[in-house]
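Q: Okay, next protein. This is Methyltransferase family protein from Actinokineospora auranticolor. I've checked the sequence twice, so it should be correct. Can you predict the 3D structure?
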Amino acid sequence: MAETAPHYVFATDFEREEERLALGERLWDPGTQARLAEVGVGPGTRCLEVGAGRGSIAAWMAGRGAEVTAVDIDTSRLTGLHGVRVRQADVTTDDIGRDYDLVHARLVVQHVADRASAVRWMAAALRPGGHLVLEDTDSTPLFDTADGIMHERVKRAAYAEMTYAGYHPRCGLLDIDLMTAVGLVDVRAEGRAEVVEGGGLNARWFALWLEHLRPAMIARGRVDAAEIDAAVADLATPGHRWLSQVMVTVTGRKVA
Ligand SMILES: C[S@@+](CC[C@H](N)C(=O)[O-])C[C@H]1O[C@@H](n2cnc3c(N)ncnc32)[C@H](O)[C@@H]1O
């Protein structure tokens, strides 16, 4: 299917979406927190968390004494966060504010078809000298194992479904050019991957990713239910071990 139909691919009904998002936080939060702490998050830092999801990073920023605003197209999961202002906004079209010391978005830019506009709005939200930190994945190594790629057809089907909605499978690398194009300086990038053990909680994040996409993958004839069942069963099997995607963290500074 060549054309795309831009929308947020995970905005469909899935009764385990809350659990899926929580497992993603569990997998990626420690690395994100370490990198944001290096950039500087402390008392009085003005932070904007974009596409905040359930808000674990916004809550962590507020816990360090920062002044935090969290925005998302869907704010229904951003409840009960102490010290976090919540605003509904679409980062591709809406002015998301000004004068922030730090703007952060994880697993967001990769999903929006109009990536350039999203990065422009985020750069505009920085004060001179402030930092933009984008975290998006490069999915190339996902499911690599010691002896090949696990369930390559299912992996390809899942990413085809996401790409149909506007996702880019190598967005982590694209972010470098997107940030340079809006005039940010000192742009630097690094990647981190996790080793995932079958049957563990991190493996369950990948299983729920496939479950969320299951109806769409089958409806478009990309794979059948038995192939997805086999992949999900492998993900739940202790002894299996594979690489996650690479989470690429790109940091840039607005000229002072
Ligand atoms: C994969 S989730 C990641 C959530 C969170 N950043 C995390 O890493 O745990 C993507 C989030 O981006 C939000 N989102 C998608 N498109 C958006 C847009 N155009 N503007 C603002 N938020 C968006 C979704 O509603 C969702 O909460």
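A: Here is a summary of the prediction. Residues 143 and 150 are 5 Å apart (CA to CA). The radius of gyration is 18 Å.
Q: Noted. On to the next one.
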